[in-house]
Write a structure and sequence with these properties.
Its EC number is 2.7.7.7. This is DNA-directed DNA polymerase. One of its GO terms (biological process) is DNA-templated DNA replication. The chain has three domains: about 10-140, P-loop containing nucleotide triphosphate hydrolases (Rossmann fold), CATH 3.40.50.300; about 145-210, no CATH class; about 215-340, Zinc Finger, Delta Prime, domain 3. Helix content is about 55%, strand content about 10%. The protein has helices at about 10-15, 30-45, 60-65, 70-75, 95-105, 125-130, 145-155, 165-175, 180-190, 200-210, 215-225, 230-240, 245-265, 270-275, 285-315, 325-340, and strands at about 20-25, 55-60, 85-90, 110-115, 135-140. A five-stranded parallel sheet has the order 2-3-4-1-5, with helices on both faces. The chain is elongated.
Length: about 350
């Protein structure tokens, strides 16, 4: 049976204890692993592994001994309760022993959980589970978690009171971070709010969010937008030492100034523009960008975007021989000087 993306989250949270097995496949190994952990924990409980009710079988080991999977399904634990046989890193080359194990499965045997990488629609392993009457297959794609999934993670961590702006901030983080980092962030937020019954705020989310690898680049963009030209040279030297490309700097600066222009030119005013921004701007960063947009105004921001576009074209020109980072530094200083004239 094939699980749809709509039904999969519910199944991961409350898997069928009487099912023969489940195949979870996907390109992102971390996303697959998180869903596998959730399913196994729901089936055997938090003490299942300690009570030896979980058997792990690497795909490489099953290739050497095809019978070990069926043995794991039939083996009994010293402790009562449901059991799971977990086959990891499977591929189509293991279809035959997996098929044999599914055929010999009987009620009371361990449930079979299989994880694999990306599988095409023609995959023999995928077809085996999709065509089985009491086993399921589900693909995990690189989509950010839905609002419902985020709320479920928060509730599981003990957080039930969440400000609407804080939920928007978490949704934005979910789109930026990989699943493992986002899960750790939710756990960090839950620890931060331990014993605090007040609703979670976007400022608290920002405090708990991991520092971006581009944090210094973000600060550089703020320095330029705030007209602090004296700080640009030293920061450019640090970014150059980190291997930052000139084109990347221009692209990120253009994105920042477009966001400011969108805020400044909103018919309802900059505050309403900041609230409508996509992706959402939250926490202290929102206040800072709002001040920048108000200080620049839409007219001067149009001029700034023109300077950035000209520099971008110059960097990409076939006849360009000047040092690329020097051109970007000159562009940033021009922008900072333009800001300080406001």
């Amino acid at each position: 049976m094939k699980l749809s993306p709509r039904d999969a989250p519910g199944y991961f949270a409350r898997p069928d204890a009487n099912s023969t097995g489940l195949l979870i496949y996907g390109e992102d190994a971390m996303r697959v692993a998180l869903k596998r952990q959730q399913v196994i924990a729901a089936l055997i409980g938090p003490e299942g592994e300690a009570e030896m009710r979980l058997t792990r079988i690497p795909g490489s080991e099953l290739r050497k001994d095809p019978a070990m999977l069926l043995d794991a399904l039939k083996a009994q634990s010293f402790f009562p309760g449901p059991r799971v046989a977990f086959l990891e890193e499977a591929s189509d080359t293991l279809t035959k022993p997996v098929s044999a194990a599914l055929q010999d499965w009987r009620p009371g045997d361990a449930q079979l959980i299989v994880t694999a990488g990306a599988l095409k629609a023609t995959s023999a392993l995928r077809k085996l589970f999709e065509g089985h009457k009491s086993a399921c297959a589900v693909g995990i794609y690189n989509d950010p978690p839905s609002r419902e999934e985020i709320e479920a993670d928060l509730a599981k961590s003990g957080l039930k009171e969440v400000d609407r702006s804080a939920m928007e901030a978490l949704s934005a983080l979910a789109r930026e971070l990989d699943p493992g980092d986002f899960r750790q962030t939710v756990e960090k937020v839950a620890l931060y709010k331990l014993g605090d019954s007040s609703p979670l705020s976007p400022q608290e989310v920002a405090l708990c969010a991991p520092l971006s690898s581009e944090a210094e680049l973000d600060e550089m963009l703020h320095v330029v937008a705030e007209g602090r030209s004296a700080e640009i040279g030293p920061m450019m030297s640090r970014l150059e030492g980190q291997g930052m490309a000139a084109v990347t700097l221009i692209i990120m600066a253009t994105r920042h100034f477009r966001a400011l222009y969108s805020v400044a030119s909103d018919p309802g005013g900059p505050a309403q523009g900041a609230a409508r921004a996509r992706p959402p701007i939250f926490g202290p960063r929102r206040d800072r960008m709002l001040r920048q947009a108000q200080g620049w105004g839409a007219f001067r921001l149009e001029s700034a975007l023109g300077i950035l576009t000209d520099t971008d074209l110059q960097l990409r020109s076939a006849g360009q021989h000047a040092p690329a980072l020097a051109l970007v530094e000159r562009c940033f200083i021009r922008l900072a000087m333009l800001s300080s004239r406001g």
